[in-house]
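Hi support team,

I've been running sequence recovery on a batch of backbones for a student project. Most finish fine, but this one hangs at about 90% for roughly twenty minutes before it completes. I'm not sure whether the input is malformed or the queue is just slow. I've pasted the structure tokens below so you can try to reproduce it. Let me know if you need the job ID as well.

Thanks,
M.K.
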């Protein structure tokens, strides 16, 4: 406590001296570049083999590299936020499908910060009059399509 008071008094004294330059706070780190800062994505195994269709759509788009090794990825694409990232990064771990109870959700998780940086919830089915449940392929197209739109929208903002 005494040390803190002495530091505050010395900073105040320097600021009051004529011609003295007050110490500037260190610049805060720039926020991460967001979605466009990711280069490689690992797609977690999911229910109904959704990861296969998501991977296909991501590869067709070509904006991201899709890796089969989570330790080589910048981000993780999953249908749940309940992913044990530390275990996933363990060498030789057997990766199991997620246990998500919802269908049509996707989360892009920054592996460095373990924060969700993007998410989407698509309606997993149409009414019975319009043909019933969407195929997993259609759902993957909609999810990646939304990611594509969101990245393009961020690129257009000043």
């Amino acid at each position: 406590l005494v040390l803190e008071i002495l530091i505050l008094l010395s900073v105040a004294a320097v600021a009051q001296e004529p011609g003295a330059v007050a110490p500037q706070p260190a610049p805060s780190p720039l926020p991460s570049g967001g979605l466009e800062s990711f280069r490689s994505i690992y797609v977690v195994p999911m229910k109904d083999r959704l990861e296969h269709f998501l991977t296909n759509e991501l590869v067709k788009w070509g904006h991201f590299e899709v890796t089969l090794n989570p330790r080589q990825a910048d981000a993780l694409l999953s249908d749940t936020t309940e992913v044990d990232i530390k275990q996933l990064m363990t060498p030789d771990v057997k990766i199991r499908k997620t246990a998500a109870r919802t269908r049509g959700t996707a989360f892009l998780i920054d592996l460095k910060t373990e924060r969700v940086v993007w998410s989407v919830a698509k309606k997993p089915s149409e009414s019975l009059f319009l043909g019933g449940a969407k195929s997993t392929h259609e759902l993957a197209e909609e999810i990646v399509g939304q990611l594509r739109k969101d990245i393009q929208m961020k690129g257009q903002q000043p």
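--
Follow-up from support: It reproduced on our side and the slowdown came from queue contention, not your input. Residues 11-17, 20-32 have pLDDT under 50 and may be disordered. No action needed from you.
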